[in-house]
Model the fold of this input.
Amino acid sequence: MEKIQNLMNENNTELMKVKQETNTIRLIASQEVIELLNLMERTYDYMFDTSAQIINMLPNNIMKNDQIVLQKHVEILTEISHSALNIKEHLIQQMRNDLNKI
Done:
């Protein structure tokens, strides 16, 4: 559990760095980029919160050997991560479009 807690703390630190960096980008970004940054930030927050909940339930589910719940958690996290990657790709494309207009 200590290793998991350390990992969660590290992830939280990285999430805060991402938020700080996106705030800097917002100063010069188009409205479309700002909206995508907001969506990405909400998705990362949701992913972090969901991961924390799943990790808290993990020891109990492992002890019960509840493979159905464990698999469902994997599916949830996979879906969220795919969503985050799609948002990131759209964000990069929009930023490139904005740069091409300059």
Q: What stands out?
A: The CA atoms of residues 58 and 64 lie 10 Å apart.
